[in-house]
Specification:
alpha/beta; Rossmann fold; OB fold (Dihydrolipoamide Acetyltransferase, E2P); binds iron/sulfur cluster
Length: about 450
């Protein structure tokens, strides 16, 4: 345990003393916006608050502390946040001890912090992406001084390990392997608000995985903005994503390993080999292409061509049986012509993706793309987006038919009460609904796929 961690545990103990004197157990509520990295950060925030003596509620009105963990990838994300904070004004006025806090990516932007200071004076704590671990310290200051505590760091400090964490699911969890991004795709704000790549130590990652597995986790998702560049900042060629995966699969009792997100420019042949050779590694690769046009890919600063992408997909498919490949597409990026768009449609058909996350380009202030001339008219973007969806539905629908009558292993993740069905997921990331009295959440089951509904299947227990 390093000094910083020890320090935070001292603050946790101090807050515990305070909360133990309350007449009722205080309640906390974490509201999460955005991606899996934020979801993971929220599990850390919740872990800290539970250790401080709070109990969780999903009711923002009655909570003694509400923390909004924000996302800033989209330009208008702040409007949703401001709406939610506005709704809490009355309860903040009635309960002077209520603490409303905001953290995450949006707080790395000075203008947003200034706006909150001015318009929402009842927000008591603000912190950013680089000091999420310091929640106990920040909260302690707020509780004891009754002053507002706004602490947003401009640069990352050391990676802080071993703080409490509360998983949302008991049977699966995400594991950060690195933070930040070095890629500066022209449309993306992430490198500006999450900083440069910082890889965690292998030992810390493996210890965390073992800890969760001991507590019942069967499936983990290794998380990073670009997991393929794990270790590049370590000055040791043995520390890389392939070697990390080889060690992770050796963790006993761990059944499934996923990872997200892969950058096509860094996806190596060695990685394909490791996936192929290890049953524990799920045969699902999320490989964002963003556009099928070389001109647009260049302008996006993606650093691969459509030909290189197709070559990579070919290698993956030739080597990994039943692999599913999913992707992200942005339509309407600045200067996208009809020809560029057709290239995107063409690559979707060529690759036959198993699923496609489609986005209309939206200008994000602070990025290079937002300054570009040639922003595409909204009506054109909408028209292309609708045409894209038609093609995606067609491709995904026809691809999924090959699974009919197959017997697959699934992990039960949820219960769909209305349909009285279990919701489960295959290794290659397809959702399968099936009826069963035998299995429960967290169990593995064998299911025969009966019907394809495009983005999910229904099946029968075997
Ligand atoms: S790889 Fe590109 S899109 Fe992904 S986080 Fe980094 S800059 Fe953003």
């Amino acid at each position: 345990m390093n000094n910083f961690t020890e320090e935070q545990y001292k603050y946790i103990e101090k807050i515990k003393t305070i909360t133990s004197e309350y007449q009722t157990i205080p309640k906390c509520c974490i509201v999460t916006f955005g991606c899996q990295m934020n979801a993971k950060d929220s599990e850390k925030l919740l872990g800290i608050l539970l250790s401080c003596g709070y109990e969780e509620t999903d009711d923002e009105e009655i909570a003694d502390i509400v923390i909004f963990n924000t996302c800033t990838v989209r330009e208008n994300a702040n409007q949703r946040l401001y709406g939610r904070i506005g709704q809490l004004k009355n309860s903040a006025m009635k309960n002077k001890n209520k603490i409303i806090g905001i953290c995450g990516c949006m707080m790395q932007e000075e203008d947003e912090v200034l706006n909150i200071k001015k318009k929402y004076p009842y927000v008591k704590i603000i912190f950013g992406t680089y000091n999420i671990h310091a929640l106990a310290e920040i909260l302690y200051k707020a509780l004891t001084t009754k002053e507002k505590v706004y602490e947003v760091l401009k640069e990352p400090i050391a990676i802080v390990e071993d703080l409490p964490i509360e998983n949302k699911f008991k049977f699966k969890c995400g594991i950060n392997i690195m933070y930040g991004c070095n890629n500066f795709c022209s449309y993306c704000i992430v490198p500006y608000v999450r900083g440069r790549e910082r890889s965690r130590n292998e030992e810390d990652i493996l210890n965390e995985i073992k800890f969760h597995v001991k507590n019942g986790v069967k499936e983990i998702m290794l998380l990073g903005q670009n997991v393929n560049s794990y270790g590049n900042d370590k000055n040791d060629e043995n520390i890389n994503f392939v070697n990390l995966l080889k060690k992770v699969v050796k963790v006993e009792e761990l059944k499934r390993v996923r990872f997200m997100t892969s950058h096509p420019k860094d996806f190596s042949y060695e990685l394909i080999e490791v996936i192929k050779e290890n049953d524990k590694i799920c045969k699902h690769i999320h490989l964002p292409i963003q556009s099928g046009s070389n001109d647009i890919l260049k302008s996006m600063n993606r650093k691969y061509t459509r030909e290189e992408y197709l070559e990579l997909v070919e290698k993956i498919k030739n080597n990994i049986e039943d692999v599913s490949i999913t992707t992200d597409i942005i339509v309407g990026y600045p200067n996208e012509t009809e020809r560029d768009f057709e290239d995107t449609i063409d690559i979707i058909k060529k690759v036959e993706f198993d699923s496609v996350f489609t986005f209309k380009y939206s200008k994000r202030t602070g990025t290079k793309a937002a300054e570009m001339a040639g922003q595409v008219d909204d009506s054109v973007v909408t028209d292309r987006f609708n045409r894209l969806l038609e093609v995606v539905n067609e491709v995904v629908g026809s691809k999924s038919k090959k699974y009919i009558n197959k017997i697959v292993e699934v992990l039960v993740e949820d219960i769909e009460r209305e349909k009285d069905m279990l919701v489960s997921r295959t290794g290659n990331n397809y959702l399968v609904y099936f009826k069963s009295n035998k299995y429960k959440i967290g169990d593995f089951a064998k299911v025969k796929i009966v019907k394809s509904h495009g983005f999910y299947f229904t099946g029968e227990e075997v």
